[in-house]
Amino acid sequence: MRIVVRLFFGAVAGTLLLLAFAGNANAQYTSSVGLKPSSGKAGSSFTISWNFYPCKGPVTFSWNGTPMWSANADLQNISGTVAATVPAGAQPGTYPVTGTCTNARTGGPLSAGSRFTVTATPTTTPPPPPVTTTPPPPPVTTRPSKPGAPTTPSVPTTTPPTTTSTPPTTTTPATPGTPATTSSTEPKPGELVLDRPSVKPGEPLSASGKGCVPGRMVTLTSDGADVGSAFSDSSGAFTAPVEFTRIEAGRHTVIAECGVRLTGAVDQVVTRSSGGQTGTLVILVFFVLAGVTVIRFR
Fold it and tell me: Domains (ranges, CATH) in the chain?
C-alpha cells in the first residue's frame, strides 16, 4: 500500500514539474522590434531596438524586404540596438522593418517587425521681392519772357535714323560621323543617368546613379544581360562603364541593382553606308530616261 501511495505522489510531482518547465519555456520565447523615431524623411537616421530569445546567430534587419542591417544575438545577448538610415531614394509612404533570427531550440525562424513612415520634404517658397514705387518727376516751370521782347520761334531738330548693320548668321552644318555629345547631368537620389542619349557600336557609355546602399555592389543589366558593375561610395553614389554584349538598334533600358532599383534608357544607333549605290542608281536612271527621250523624238 505504501509503495502505491509513493508511486502516485511521485507521478503527480513529475507532472507538475513538466508543466512548470513547459510554461517557463513558452514564456521565454520573445521577439520584438521597435523604431525610434518611427517616421522621418529619406536619408534621416533612426534606431532599431530588438529583443529575441532563444536566438542562435545574428539578427538580420530588412527594409521593405531588402536586408540592410544586422546585430549579434545568442542565448546571453537577447536584446540591443542598431543605428540605421532611411534609404536616400525612398519615396513618401510606410515601409516594413523586419528582424529575423534562428530559434536555438527549434531551428525555425524567430521574427518580429515594425513600420517606418517616410515623410515628404517640405518645400518653402521665398517671399516676393518688395515693389519699389518711383515718384513722378517735378513739374517744369517756364519763365515768361519780358514784354516787348521779340520771340524767336523754335526750330525743330531732326535726328537722322540710326542704321545698325547686323552681320549675317552663319550656320555650320553638322559633320557626319561626329559622336553624340555627352551629358554631365548630376543624378538625383533614386535616379540613374546615362552620359549619352544615344550610342553607336564601339562608342563609350557611362552610367551614374545615386540613392544606393553605401558600400554595396552595383550590378547593371539590360535585356537580362550583365552590362557593367561597380561599388557605391559612402553617400550611395556610383559611376560605372556600360558595355552592351549585343548590338541591336532601338531603345534599351539599363537597370542598376544596389539595394534599391534604378533605371535609365539609351538608344543604340546602327548606321549603314549606301551613298555609292544610290549615286550609281541615279546615273543609270538618268541615262535610261535620256535614251527613251531620243528614241521617242526620232
Answer: 30-118 (2.70.50.50), 191-268 (2.60.40.10)
